[in-house]
Amino acid sequence: MSLNRQKGNMYEWVTHTWNPIGGRCPHQCAYCYMLGLPVGELRLRPKFLRDDNLSGKTIFVGSSTDMWAEDVPDEWIERVLYCCNQFPESTFLFQSKNPLRFVHFLGFGFPPKTVLGTTIESNRDYDISEAPTIWHRVNPMIAIEGHRKMVSIEPVLDFDPEQLVEYIKRIGPEFVSIGADSKGHRLPEPSAEKVRSLIDELDVFTEVKLKSNLARLGIDLDEFEKQAVDFDSVA
Ligand code: SF4
Fold first, then answer.
1. CA of 189 to the centre of ligand 1 (A)
2. I want to staple 115 with a disulfide (CB 3.0 to 4.6 A). Which of 66, 148, 223, 230 is the partner?
3. Distance in angstroms between the alpha carbons of the first and the last residue of the chain
4. CB neighbours (10 Å) of residue 47?
């Protein structure tokens, strides 16, 4: 079955993940949970596009590879979007480290309940990935209008508070999800104090969702009285 019920540590507000484009992600982030798995070459899975059970769900499309990476042919993305558009009542999350590609596809048309997201682990560029630089993620996200937007700061890496908050403010996301590296990749991580103050600053202008893996950095979720928020309730 191509549609997977969401399990594990991804997003509690997503009900399913769906990967009609699969295989080796060109971005090769050092912390990616897919790294080293025998996923094969990047490819479209036409069989997935015949799914008729995408209705009434909140689906993260492309959770196992960045289907918006430059190496992915336009035609594959068009076919996926065409399929998603057959289910206008479902919420689709598209998340990419190459959101410039979202901009190129605005004219093609996303489903009405689309959420467009990007990951910015920090305002700083660390040498941990082949993905576009942080600014090349932030800038297209700022330009996008007319769609719900989200930002993932996961795994959160050490950052400059003023600039990171400014970037996120300019993107104008409906919510920000913050999480930590789950697998001990020896990344440059911020102090708990810094993360606490980031949460407080973001809370002023957007919804902040915290992931339980922040506990490893010393962040107690109860401290912020945050709970899993139903996705539709933040619309
Ligand atoms: S962009 Fe996402 S899927 Fe691709 S390597 Fe990085 S973490 Fe993995």
1. 19
2. 148
3. 30
4. 9
Cα(100) to centroid(ligand 1), Å: 16
- Which atom of ligand 1 lies closest to the CA of 25? 4
Structure tokens at 57: 């769900």
How many Å apart are CA 181 and CA 29, to the nearest integer?
12
d(CA 164, CA 130): 21
Angle between helices 161-171 and 134-143 (to 10 degrees): 30
Contact (CB, 8 A) for 151 and 179: no
DSSP symbol at 28:
-
Q: Please name the residue that has the structure tokens 């305002």.
A: 123
CA distance 81 to 84: 5
Check residue 230 and give its pLDDT.
43
Beta strands in 180-226 (DSSP E): 207-210
Question: Which distant-in-sequence residues (6+ apart) come within 8 Å of 205 by Cβ?
Answer: 169
Cβ atoms of 183 and 31 closer than 8 Å: yes
Reading the block at residue 233, the tokens are 């309730």
What does pTM read for this prediction? Answer: 0.93
**What confidence tens digit (pLDDT) does each residue in 187-210 have?**
999 999 999 999 999 999 999 999
Please name every residue paired with 95 in a beta bridge, in sequence order, or none if there are none: 117
β-pairing verdict for 43-44 and 21-22? antiparallel
In this structure, the residue with its CA closest to atom 5 of ligand 1 is 28
Q: What distance in angstroms lies between residue 24's CA and the mean position of ligand 1's atoms?
A: 9
